[in-house]
Design a protein that fits this description.
The protein is 32% helix and 27% strand. By secondary structure, it is of the alpha/beta class. A hairpin with a 2-residue loop joins strand 1 (3-11) and strand 2. Helix 1 packs across helix 2 (82-94). The radius of gyration is 13 Å and the shape is globular.
Length: 120
């Protein structure tokens, strides 16, 4: 089975999506805002539409399973609420993930992303 492991970093109105297998990376700003001053995802539909297109483009052809690690990089000073974490997981699942994991911490290498997804 062909499998892709993607690392999705989120900033206000911006996604960076990297395929850990081949290093292909997309970095895009949203045409219309999806963030809110208090949280990264204020408009779920807009964020999901953009992320879904990016995941489809970067994961490669003939991939049957996509695992996504979502990493919010801003607006997390006091940690994520349960609702924010769930929204990020749902965002990844709606974008085509078979498995979604949310990570809060330092930026990860591809090997670290793979290890965290393996343990989840």
């Amino acid at each position: 089975m062909l499998k892709a492991a993607l690392y999705v970093q989120i900033r206000p109105d911006r996604f960076i999506v990297r395929n850990t297998a081949d290093g292909r990376t997309l970095d895009r700003m949203a045409a219309s805002t999806f963030s809110h001053p208090r949280t990264l995802i204020g408009n779920f539909t807009t964020a999901e539409t953009l992320l879904k297109a990016m995941v489809s483009e970067v994961k490669g052809n003939f991939v049957l399973r996509t695992d996504i690690l979502v990493h919010p990089l801003e607006r997390i000073e006091r940690g994520l609420t349960q609702i924010e974490e769930r929204a990020l997981q749902e965002l990844a699942m709606g974008s085509g993930a078979s498995k979604a994991l949310v990570w809060v911490g330092s930026v990860l290498t591809d090997a670290e992303v793979l290890e965290k997804l393996k343990k989840a």
